[in-house]
Inverse folding.
């Protein structure tokens, strides 16, 4: 292809319709026109970023590759969202990714923008072998404590998979207790292992959607922004309006403001 035969506008249009490789970029950068050379720089940077994303996927897939080589086929990643918030449920997800498809861009859900998380959420749901979700509400958290509630949510997520996994990779430093499945805890797994990263995205987006719905009922608490976490905005709202039926009464900050004003919001003991 001879770019000299085309205007810059035409070249831009052509580049959107073809696979731009290193050879094409070199041709762009040799063009006499600055605008065309700028396109070469743009696509060179884009190609570099894509290569880095591919390399990151490969690094984050090493643990799964090792397990596949050992004969494990159905490897489920497990992660949770919502251990720390003052309100709402804790949500866990279990995900089994396909061996023959790459989902580029997986990462710890907290490192991704909301838009990117939601996009990856849809891709994961579409391409995964299986996805399971477990939800434990704030009342159950208050009864058994958040540590136990988190493991309960993880067990529910695994149970809700359409297929039984033969190996679990669990985010964190603790395996799931009293579970008759082969498992392994991976510290910072959501940033190091693709299948755990996928689970972290499913759990985070699922919980965020639940909290966003709460916002419609209790807009004064700013749930749409704080997702139930103890931000200054949220704490000030608790001081002003009291406690909702969604708050975790076993959490010190919430319990501190448990008073008669709570009855204005709802019966906390229902």
């Amino acid at each position: 292809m001879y770019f000299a035969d085309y205007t810059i506008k035409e070249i831009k249009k052509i580049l959107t319709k073809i696979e731009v490789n290193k050879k094409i970029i070199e041709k762009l950068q040799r063009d006499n026109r600055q605008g065309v050379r700028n396109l070469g720089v743009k696509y060179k940077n884009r190609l570099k970023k894509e290569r880095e994303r591919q390399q990151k996927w490969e690094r984050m897939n090493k643990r799964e590759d090792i397990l596949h080589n050992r004969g494990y086929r159905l490897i489920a990643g497990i992660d949770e969202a919502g251990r720390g918030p003052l309100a709402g449920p804790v949500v866990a997800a279990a995900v089994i990714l396909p061996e023959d498809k790459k989902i580029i861009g997986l990462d710890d859900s907290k490192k991704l923008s909301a838009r990117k998380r939601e996009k990856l959420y849809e891709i994961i749901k579409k391409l995964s072998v299986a996805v399971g979700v477990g939800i434990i509400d704030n009342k159950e958290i208050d009864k058994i404590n958040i540590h136990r509630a988190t493991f309960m949510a993880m067990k529910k997520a695994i149970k809700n998979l359409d297929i039984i996994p033969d190996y679990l990779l669990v985010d964190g430093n603790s395996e799931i207790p009293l579970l008759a499945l082969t498992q392994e805890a991976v510290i910072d797994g959501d940033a190091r292992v693709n299948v755990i990263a996928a689970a972290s995205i499913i759990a985070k987006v699922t919980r965020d959607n639940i909290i966003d719905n709460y916002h419609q009922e209790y807009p004064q608490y700013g749930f749409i922004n704080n997702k139930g976490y103890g931000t200054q905005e949220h704490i000030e709202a608790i001081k002003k309006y009291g406690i909702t039926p969604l708050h975790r009464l076993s959490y010190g900050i919430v319990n501190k403001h448990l008073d008669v004003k709570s009855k204005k919001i709802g019966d906390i003991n229902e």
